[in-house]
């Protein structure tokens, strides 16, 4: 991992971006981040965000976009992503009805393949982001294993959320070792010590980041995220500082 491969998911800073997206980007640049992953545009537009990122020497790595928008508003989404300069469109969440059975998950895999093919033609890669439910038992397998098996590696990548892998009862190091060629994006998200296991800045919790980084040889982007935070700017600053130390140690 190199520091220029590290970005931050702006969902972490949504309380700030909803009223000052461009100012928040400037603060992230001052911390040292050179990449962002979007989850909406806050109080700005794709064009304004791109102009500010260019000014700051930053880039938009990816954007989280609901699967219904990817299917029903593909042209508008592609225009946004190309304006931003995004390399990836990421499916961030799937509703319960779309994952309630093995048949439903196989149907989802087919949808992801179709979207991936359409977006690839426009130069955008598709990726799928996990939570913990992908690792629950499902007809002698799991949703994760089914999606990996039934999506085309040429069309669908995965964004591995390390925190939710652990909550789901799996080892992120083992997944990276086994499926590394499919995991082109990773969410660097830590889990606090103790029984509650709440969200924590990277390097302050229980996840074995040196081993994770060592296993993530084929991962292209490492994206800091913290789902909830009382002080998001302080927390992403702490995460960046600790990631710098990880990069130096590797």
Features:
globular; TIM Barrel; 250 residues; alpha/beta; 45% helix; single chain; 10 helices; 8-stranded parallel β-barrel; two-stranded antiparallel ribbon
Brief synopsis:
The chain is of the alpha/beta class. It is built from ten helices and twelve strands. It is globular.
Taking the alpha carbons of the first and last residues, their distance comes to 8 Å
CATH homologous superfamily grouping? Divalent-metal-dependent TIM barrel enzymes
The CATH C-level name is: Alpha Beta
Average pLDDT taken over every residue: 97
Work out the radius of gyration.
Answer: 17 Å
Question: What is the secondary structure topology, with strand pairs?
Answer:
Elements: E1 6-9, H1 14-31, E2 35-38, H2 46-56, E3 59-64, H3 67-72, H4 74-84, E4 88-91, H5 102-120, E5 125-129, E6 137-138, E7 141-142, H6 143-150, E8 156-161, H7 162-167, H8 172-179, E9 183-188, E10 190-191, E11 199-200, H9 209-215, E12 221-224, H10 232-249
Parallel strand pairs: 1-2, 1-12, 2-3, 3-4, 4-5, 5-8, 8-9, 9-12
Antiparallel strand pairs: 6-7, 10-11
What would you note in describing this structure?
This protein has helices spanning 14-31, 46-56, 67-72, 74-84, 102-120, 143-150, 162-167, 172-179, 209-215, 232-249, and strands spanning 6-9, 35-38, 59-64, 88-91, 125-129, 137-138, 141-142, 156-161, 183-188, 190-191, 199-200, 221-224. By secondary structure, the protein is of the alpha/beta class. It has a single domain (3-249), classed as Alpha-Beta Barrel (TIM Barrel), CATH 3.20.20. An 8-stranded parallel β-barrel has the order 1-2-3-4-5-8-9-12, surrounded by 4 helices. A two-stranded antiparallel sheet has the order 6-7. Strand 6 and strand 7 form a beta hairpin. The termini are close together.
